[in-house]
Write a structure and sequence with these properties.
There is one protein chain. Helix 3 runs antiparallel to helix 4, helix 4 packs antiparallel against helix 7 and helix 6 packs antiparallel against helix 7. The mean pLDDT is about 95. This protein starts with a helix and ends in a 10-residue tail after the last helix. It has one domain. Helices cover about 55% and strands about 0% of the residues. The chain is mainly α.
Amino acid sequence: MELRAFAEQVLLRPALEEKLTPPPAELTDVEPGPAVRVVEPTRTPELEFAPRRTAPSMPSPQALADPRKRAIAHHIMANHELQALEVMAWVLLAFPEAPTEFRMGMVAVMRDEQRHTRMHAERARRLGVRFGELPVNCYIWKKAQEFESVLDYLAGLPLVFEGRNLDHTCELSEAFDAAGDPRSARLMQVIHDDEIEHVRFGIEWLRRLKRDDQSDWDAFVDHLHWPLRPGKARGSQFQRDARRAAGLDEEFIDRLEHWTDDDASELR
């Protein structure tokens, strides 16, 4: 199977089952094809992006004592993971000139995103909400439409969205545990461990593709598109050790932890 065909399967086939079908072990990237920028992923009607402000918001930690609220939380996160998967497929189609090693490396991350989507959807179902029963937003997808290069992608998705998830997964794991739901808490911890590797993939390729005269931090900031900014790459509980484990250097971690919107002049 060609890598392009797998990306098209994820992005252009509407059925969730096809989107979440892992690629075969033997993939090739012999024919990456021409660049294609897909405006919106093809989804079944119940999972099509809803109008603004119609999708439910993430329940507060205190609300998670209610099983339905926990189901809603998993429903929201299943859509987040599905969007991330679709964005990765979009990158493969939009930037066929990217190094083959990078493109093939994306496959392992995409397999994780497929698994995470299934995990959240199944947990939501067990808690009483079928995936697709509620409206879903398109925030991650819409931000990806501004990516103009692989470096923009690396700064925006692995280092902002997945970087932020290093914190959110721990916060939600604690909240689920406090709500008496150890299964959901464990699910979040599994995803946290995977996100460390996803952030590692992002920073390693940022280093390989950035200009030699740029620091990691400067390359990161230079490739962010507002409103994505360093402050969006962290949650409430800053997981310094997880970021070290992902390979971020101390300067990067320090600047990320202490960045405020007053520093926005750094952004292009």
